[in-house]
Amino acid sequence: MLSFRIVRIMGIPIELHITFILLLILVYYFWGLDGLILYIFLFLSVVIHELAHSYVAKKYGVHIEKILLLPIGGMAMMDRIPREGELKIAIAGPVVSILLGIVLILLSNFIEAPVLHIEGIDYPLLTTVGILNIILGVFNLFPAFPMDGGRILRALLASKMSYLKATRIASIIGQFLSFILLLLGILSLNVILILIALFIYYGASKEYHVLVTEDVFSKIKVKDIMTTKIVAVSPQDTVKDLMDTMFKYRYMGYPVVEKGKLVGSVSFNDITHVSEKVLVRDIMKPPVTVSEDKTLKDVIPGLETSDRVYVLDKNRRLKGIISKTDVLRILKILEFRKDS
Ligand SMILES: [Zn+2]
Asked: Of 1 and 167, which is predicted with more confidence?
């Protein structure tokens, strides 16, 4: 995604997506400077909302990669959301938005703030931004994923039942509510409402599926699915030797092992443009590894950057290999076995 880093707050980079910048130009074109100012204040409010989530998340040791600003809103990209902190993390955003809104509206009674003129209508800056913050907070409390309200609902349910069941119920409630929203949108011919309803409906059903997959993956042990038939090559081998090995075994990638230690990984893609005399050690890549007591869930991030992940034992000796193809086959079998 094309985005520009503009500033760092609490150690979190804030990035503007290119479509957001294009929208700024459009807003300026249609609503002039005053429209642009109001729009910027709205997005400052979104940043504050996301920072509120991030602030609490950091207390739970969550790493926040960045806050990305898109034309439709902001997104704090967290590496994970801890179950024990979900309620507080989710509720922080709406609470801060609503409080900020109330404070701004109260302040407008005491401070002479500028008035913006957009399309012939007067918008007192403080009051307008205050109202927008309250709308932002309340809108996010809508109890459906991916809104904060969906997470709050799930966290509340999860205190009474399993996390998976809580997610399923929260997901069904979210789909039902977004369906009602969709009906309202269609009856009132409100395109924006229809789009929001579809967005929430999609998010509500996706959340449950992601969790089911994670749940299944975390029950599959790496050592139960890895290939233990290992054909390794040496860093001293030439590309010609490697091609002979490939011809014989027909695997597309090989671990590079020296004195019993895994030192690299080499695949068919690495040899397509090099001479036959080049040595494996000059073209091999650093291996992506996982420990043998881990689960399939831990393998997935590695497979995003590499076609195969090497499984090591406690002494860091190579015990097996898991490739993308292996995982796809397992998914097919799981799909077939799924009882629901
Ligand atoms: Zn939020």
From this structure: 167
| Parallel/antiparallel/unpaired status of strands 289-291 and 308-312 | parallel
Domain ranges of the chain: 1-141, 143-217, 222-337
Q: Which residues are annotated as a binding site?
A: 49, 53, 148
**65 assigned to active site:** no
pTM, to two decimals: 0.65
* Residue range 100-141, pLDDT digits in tens: 999 999 998 888 778 888 878 888 888 999 999 999 899 889
Note residues around ion ligand 1 (Cβ under 5 angstroms).
93, 140, 148
Q: Rounded to whole angstroms, how far apart are CA atoms 231 and 252?
A: 11
Could you tell me the distance, in angstroms and rounded to a whole number, from the CA of residue 134 to the centre of ligand 1? 12
- What DSSP string runs through 43-64? HHHHHHHHHHHHHHHHHTT--E
What is the spatial distance between Cα 90 and Cα 68, in angstroms, rounded to a whole number?
17
Dihedral-angle region of residue 119 (phi above 0 means left; psi in -120 to 50 means alpha; beta otherwise) = left
Strand partners, 143: none
**Mean pLDDT computed over 169-173:** 87
Binding site for Zn(2+): residue ranges? Answer: 49, 53, 148
Give buried/exposed letters for 113-132 (b at 16+ CB in 10 A, else e): eeebebeeeebbbbbbbbeb
List Cα–Cα distances, 238 to 211, 243, 283, 294, 335, in angstroms.
45, 9, 10, 34, 42
> In terms of CATH architecture, what is 222-337?
Roll (3.10)
Which tokens go with 211?
């969790």
What are 5's strand-pairing partners?
15
Catalytic residue among 50, 214, 276, 335: 50
Cα–ligand 1 centroid distance for 228 (angstroms):
46
